[in-house]
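Reminder to self: tokens first, then the designed residues, so the page reads top to bottom the way the pipeline ran.
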């Protein structure tokens, strides 16, 4: 612990890291605010779980189509320009939603179009941001920078939904305007970044190089197992798209309650992140990942059956805590096992898996809820998550038996 404390002042004194950290907090908070406001507004307009699921699909489809070029772009061009451009476009999209809300022309189709545009921007922004941090700080303090950056994301994920619920009380237009302004600020901060590590040699654009991120992951069964397990588990167990339904129709709360529900998984994730910082995983990492996925599934079942707001929040907190264990294992395997020259493309593929579990999971939840009902959809998803963990433990035995993380670059 003492070494961590000693590293912190050096990071705080580094202007580049402070700018990067601040921009990432603002961008993540804005994305979370938009998710709350869009979900609540869509359900207020249509009262349709199917439309809530379509919002997730609209964010996922651009990711499915653009992940491969996004990774290659991140490895070939100035990553600051890519991130800044994405944040500016996201800000303009939020401004458009604000104007549509104020002038009474907001509709499900307008929201769907905005979700597509935001999804496309996130497809480029997420992997490029992940690949940008190692260029902002020196290698000696990169592990500490990664930890503080991850904690910042969890903090923003807590603050964003709660702030989104509070802003919605003043009206969705005001919430969207707030987001537009802070996306602009985030992009400006990224523009001011100075790189301490020069870019790696840029590989010519070929079909092979475009797909090299997939090829690399496929050649590493442990990494493939970890990424796919995390993806399928959250795909089945994710109930995020149905939170507006639970908030209004089952738990009988308002937009503030919805914000609290959306923040609960991040609270659990932040608490678990602090625990893992104090007591990092050093052995049986594979078994711990599978155990965490089972706990995530159990938490999903409890949340699905709950009609009591405090119990629902506790279940979501447990789900967030379990999910971060899986995320830490997956992220560490990817980080330690990927060469610098491939970081953008591998990060893009990893982001696609994350996006699949989140956005496509929202679509799956909405579709299932429209067919079977909200509570059965969530409960079935939780049971499915547990079954997937058991199946993956047999399909990817090297991951299940993994005791320690590999050496960097192994």
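Designed residues (410 positions):
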């Amino acid at each position: 612990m003492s070494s961590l404390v000693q590293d912190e002042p050096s990071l705080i004194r580094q202007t580049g890291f402070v700018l990067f950290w601040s921009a990432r907090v603002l961008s993540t908070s804005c994305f979370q605010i938009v998710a709350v406001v869009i979900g609540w507004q869509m359900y207020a307009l249509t009262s349709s779980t199917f439309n809530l699921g379509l919002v997730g699909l609209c964010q996922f489809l651009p990711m499915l189509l653009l992940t491969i070029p996004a990774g290659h772009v991140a490895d070939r061009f100035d990553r600051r320009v890519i991130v800044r451009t994405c944040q500016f476009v996201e800000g303009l999209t939020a401004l458009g939603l604000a104007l549509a809300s104020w002038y009474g022309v907001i509709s499900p189709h307008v929201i769907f179009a905005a979700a597509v545009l935001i999804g496309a921007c996130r497809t480029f922004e997420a992997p490029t941001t992940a690949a940008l941090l190692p260029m902002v700080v020196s290698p000696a303090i990169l592990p500490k920078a990664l930890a503080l950056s991850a904690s910042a994301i969890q903090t923003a994920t807590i603050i964003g939904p709660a702030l989104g619920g509070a802003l919605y009380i003043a009206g969705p237009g005001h919430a969207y305007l707030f987001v537009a302004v802070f996306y602009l600020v985030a992009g400006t901060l990224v523009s001011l970044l100075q790189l301490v590590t020069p870019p790696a040699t840029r590989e010519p654009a070929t079909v092979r190089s475009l797909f090299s991120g997939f090829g690399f992951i496929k050649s590493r069964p442990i990494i493939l197992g970890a990424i796919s397990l995390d993806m399928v588990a959250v795909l089945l167990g994710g109930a995020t798209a149905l939170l507006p339904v639970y908030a209004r129709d089952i738990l009988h709360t308002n937009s503030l309650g919805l914000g609290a529900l959306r923040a609960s998984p991040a609270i659990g994730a932040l608490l678990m992140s602090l625990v893992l910082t104090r007591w990092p995983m050093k052995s049986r990492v594979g078994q711990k990942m599978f155990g965490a996925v089972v706990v995530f599934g159990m938490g999903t079942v409890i949340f699905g059956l709950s009609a009591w707001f405090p119990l629902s929040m506790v279940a979501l907190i447990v789900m967030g805590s379990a999910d971060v264990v899986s995320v830490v294992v997956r992220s560490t395997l990817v980080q330690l096992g990927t060469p610098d020259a491939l970081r953008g493309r591998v990060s893009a593929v990893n982001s696609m898996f994350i996006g699949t579990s989140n956005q496509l999971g929202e679509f799956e939840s909405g579709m299932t809820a429209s067919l079977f009902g909200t509570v059965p959809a969530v409960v079935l998803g939780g049971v499915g998550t547990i079954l997937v963990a058991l199946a993956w433990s047999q399909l990817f035995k090297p991951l299940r038996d993994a005791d320690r993380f590999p050496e960097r670059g192994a």
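The CA atoms of residues 49 and 366 lie 5 Å apart.
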